[in-house]
Amino acid sequence: MNRAEKSTEIESLKARFSKSLMTILADYKGLSVASLTDLRNNLRQRDSSFKVVKNRLAKIAIQDTPAKVLDEHFVGTTAVATTETDPAGPAKVIVDFAKENESLKIKAGYLDGKLIDLNEIKALANLPAKEELIAKLMGSMLAPASNLVSVLVQIPRQLVNVLSAIKDQKEQQQ
Questions:
Q1: Beta pairing partners, 52
Q2: Reduced to 3 states, what is the DSSP secondary structure of residue 106?
Q3: Cβ(90)–Cβ(49) under 8 Å?
Q4: In the chain, what percentage of residues exceed pLDDT 70?
Q5: Which helix (H) or strand (E) holds 29?
């Protein structure tokens, strides 16, 4: 890799780290190319990416970004998973993949200005999907209105039931 290629790679990594909402570093040593390809495809479905990086170039790239806290974790074979959208997406994919493939070891992560460890990444992976959380929130927000409508509908229904009972009673008396 010549100097121009290195410079281009550093700029690319800097842009990736600057835009990333969630970054996870992993040691991929021992994984086959097919496994890495499978992992990349799974991450792509979650609007995330996975890139094998050179540690020296990555350390240079993160210096002027908020992800600078990851500096000490660029040791050994390192791959970077990033996303600009849902932070739980790559966490779920990588944690599930690491369960099936013991060769993938999660080193650390970066979320919202904070360095996170393996346990925090696993906790993030156990959160429900963004769409599910939104659905639960909307359900909670709509519940009071729905309950009010149910109560308001019961009043005329009860009146009709009382009138029907009076009618039935008068018919039986005749």
A1: 79
A2: strand
A3: no
A4: 100
A5: none
DSSP 128: P
Query: 104-155, pLDDT tens digit by residue?
Result: 999 999 998 889 999 999 998 888 877 888 888 898 888 888 888 888 888 8
Contacts of 76 (CB under 8 A, 6+ apart): 27, 29, 55
> 28 and 79 in contact (C-beta within 8 Å)?
yes
Q: What is the pTM assigned to this prediction?
A: 0.73
Which H helix or E strand runs over 71?
none
Structure tokens at 15: 């842009």
What are the DSSP calls for 122-163, one per residue? HHHHTSPPHHHHHHHHHHHHHHHHHHHHHHHHHHHHHHHHHH
24: part of which helix (H) or strand (E)? strand 22-27
Q: How far is residue 147's CA from residue 151's CA, in Å, rounded to a whole number?
A: 6
